[in-house]
């Protein structure tokens, strides 16, 4: 049947959030309340869907992964100090169920975001990842993303920057 990538329906938000949080769980530090809050935020697809586009990869009715695409605004109010540039689309919270990895699900989700960004008149796609997410970094670089300046938070946490001209 194959993997279909499309916009999530409201009745899929909860499952998309569960799958995305499950994908990120391996990076969480045990008993770290900040990570637990972040995983809860990742799981809240319904709240993000009010401001952004949520794409899901589905196979035989099962959600294998999801991604948040920021086209017209940021996911979080706290990102208001870093608004999207008029030519920019930004990817966030890409996650694939651990049992569905290494099947091209993440690549299909990223490619769908690129296509939507291009259709919306954007000229570049940006994203952030962490140093621990090595497989994601390799995939992004293999898809033609190049490194951009990192985002360093006051507590020292670093998000690696990536960008692709489309």
Task: Outline the fold blueprint.
Elements: E1 4-7, H1 13-25, H2 33-43, H3 45-49, E2 53-59, E3 62-70, E4 88-96, H4 105-119, E5 124-129, H5 134-142, E6 146-152, E7 158-165
Parallel strand pairs: 4-5
Antiparallel strand pairs: 1-2, 2-3, 3-4, 5-7, 6-7
Structure described in brief:
This protein is α+β, with helices and mostly antiparallel strands and 166 residues long. Helix content is 32%, strand content 30%.
Mind explaining what this structure looks like?
The protein has 166 residues and is an alpha+beta fold. The protein has one domain: Aminopeptidase, CATH 3.40.630.30. It is 32% helix and 30% strand. It has 5 helices and 7 strands. It has helices at residues 13-25, 33-43, 45-49, 105-119, 134-142, and strands at residues 4-7, 53-59, 62-70, 88-96, 124-129, 146-152, 158-165. It has a 7-stranded mixed beta sheet. Helix 1 packs antiparallel against helix 2. The chain is globular, with a radius of gyration of 15 Å. The protein starts with a strand and ends with a strand. The mean pLDDT is 92.
Question: Any idea what the CATH architecture is?
Answer: 3-Layer(aba) Sandwich
* Beta-strand segment tally: 7
Oligomer: single chain
Structural class: alpha+beta
Uncertain stretches of 5 or more adjacent residues: none
Distance between the termini: 30 Å
Estimated radius of gyration: 15 Å
Biggest sheet character: 7 strands, mixed
Strand order of the largest sheet: 1-2-3-4-5-7-6
- How do the SSEs run, as a string of H and E? EHHHEEEHEHEE
Percent range for helical residues? 25-40%
**β-strand amount:** 25-35%
Instruction: Please state the average pLDDT score.
Output: 92
User: What is the number of helical segments per DSSP (H or I, 4+ residues)?
Assistant: 5
CATH topology-level name: Aminopeptidase
CATH superfamily: Gcn5-related N-acetyltransferase (GNAT)
* Structural domains: how many: 1
- Global outline: globular
| Top-tier CATH class | Alpha Beta
